[in-house]
From TrEMBL:
Domain of life: Bacteria
Annotated DUF3817 domain residues: 17-114
Membrane-crossing residue ranges in chain numbering: 21-43, 63-84, 93-109
Record keywords: Cell membrane, Membrane, Transmembrane, Transmembrane helix
Entry membrane topology: Multi-pass membrane protein
Name of the protein this chain belongs to: Integral membrane protein
Length: 137
């Protein structure tokens, strides 16, 4: 069985730092979106469900929804970047994407991902380990 290519510790940690920020921003953005939807359809929705909404919350929703969509796309791209740098299996990538879909889950997913990054960087060979072991380094 061939030995796996070493990870780049610095690139992995940098990628995770970007993903961490994106996770927190996505979590907050999703909570804001859920709050807007509750205000639009439940609190100010009137008697008929989904038919009579407040014009203010309808406008706020139409402005915030695309912003949240852009934030989620950035989150996905940064999650993909982390996944590539860590050389994880496909199910891990799908899990990273799922963390950004369920409200509040991105905060827990970020902590779990941090632990996984640390464990993998401890257990798997890195370029920095090779540089330290090389003679004359």
């Amino acid at each position: 069985m061939p030995t796996p290519r070493p990870l780049d510790d610095v690139a992995c940690r940098t990628s995770f730092a970007r993903f961490r920020v994106a996770s927190i921003v996505e979590g907050i953005a999703l909570l804001v979106l859920v709050t807007i939807m509750i205000m639009r359809y439940v609190v100010f929705g009137g008697d008929a469900w989904f038919t009579s909404t407040s014009p203010l919350w309808e406008h706020v929703s139409s402005v915030w929804s695309p912003i949240h969509g852009l934030i989620y796309m950035i989150y996905v791209i940064l999650g993909f970047d982390l996944w590539l740098k860590m050389r994880w299996a496909l199910p891990r990538m799908l899990l990273l994407m799922f963390f950004g879909v369920v409200p509040v889950l991105s905060f827990f997913g970020e902590r779990w991902t941090h632990q996984q990054v640390e464990v993998d960087l401890q257990q798997r060979p890195t370029l920095q380990d090779e540089a330290e072991a090389a003679p004359g380094a």
